[in-house]
Design goal:
Mean pLDDT: 96
Distance between the termini: 27 Å
CATH class of the largest domain: Mainly Alpha
Radius of gyration: 16 Å
Helix content: 40-55%
Strand content: 5-15%
Order of helices and strands: EHEHEEHHHHH
Number of strands: 4
Largest sheet: 4 strands, mixed
Number of helices: 7
Oligomer: single chain
Number of domains: 2
Structural class: alpha+beta
Shape: globular
């Protein structure tokens, strides 16, 4: 069985667990104790010198980065509804994976790191970026039930965790009714996997 080295409160790890649950992909979860520095010691560094989670190990394949893992899992398992094979659909989904790694990471995710975990990041800048990206996502979801392709895809799995966790960073979702409705739709999906605070 594939192994996922995981931290429960990490949004990047949760993306992978969420998709696997929704797509019915079994994973063996291997918790990593960040507080104890497990990710900075052996044997973890032998698997991932970047010292980051999530980390997926599938036989001879070892992958870091949540978005790379999402694409791998969907392709390997044949979950093509989540990751279609045509270039246009893949491009539409990848633009949201990039948004997740860029604007969402530097906005709601960074605000949460400051407020919930005490990271020394620029909270005012994170709040400003949050307002900008959440407005754009809300406008998009006001016209679409899902981020792309009129159905749940990897795009929704990638964007969902840190948007849903935005209040833990002091970012209210009250001004964004379309985002709130989208969160409710994701929670209603068969196989949805909750996380602490979601």
């Amino acid at each position: 069985m594939m192994k996922l080295y995981d931290v429960e409160l990490s949004g990047n790890c949760y993306k992978v667990r969420l998709f696997a649950a929704l797509a019915g992909i079994p994973l063996e979860i291997r918790p990593v104790d960040l507080a104890a520095g497990e990710h900075k010691g052996e044997p973890f560094l032998a698997l991932n010198p970047w010292a980051q989670v999530p980390l997926l190990v599938d036989g001879d394949v070892t992958l870091r980065d949540s978005h790379a893992i999402l694409v791998y899992l969907a392709s390997r398992s044949g979950a093509m509804a989540w990751w279609p094979s045509d270039a246009a659909s893949q491009g539409r989904i990848v633009q949201w994976l990039s948004t997740s790694a860029g604007e969402i990471q530097s906005g709601p995710a960074s605000a949460r790191l400051v407020q919930k975990f005490g990271y020394e990041l620029d909270k005012p800048q994170a709040l400003k970026r949050s307002a900008s990206i959440l407005r754009l996502i809300d406008e998009h979801l006001a016209r679409n039930d899902w981020l792309e392709l009129n159905r749940p895809t990897l795009a929704d799995c990638a964007v969902f965790p840190y948007v849903a966790w935005a209040p833990e960073g002091g970012v209210s979702l009250e001004p964004y009714p379309a985002i709130q409705a989208w969160i409710a739709r994701i929670k209603a999906l068969s196989g949805f996997l909750p996380a602490p605070g979601i």
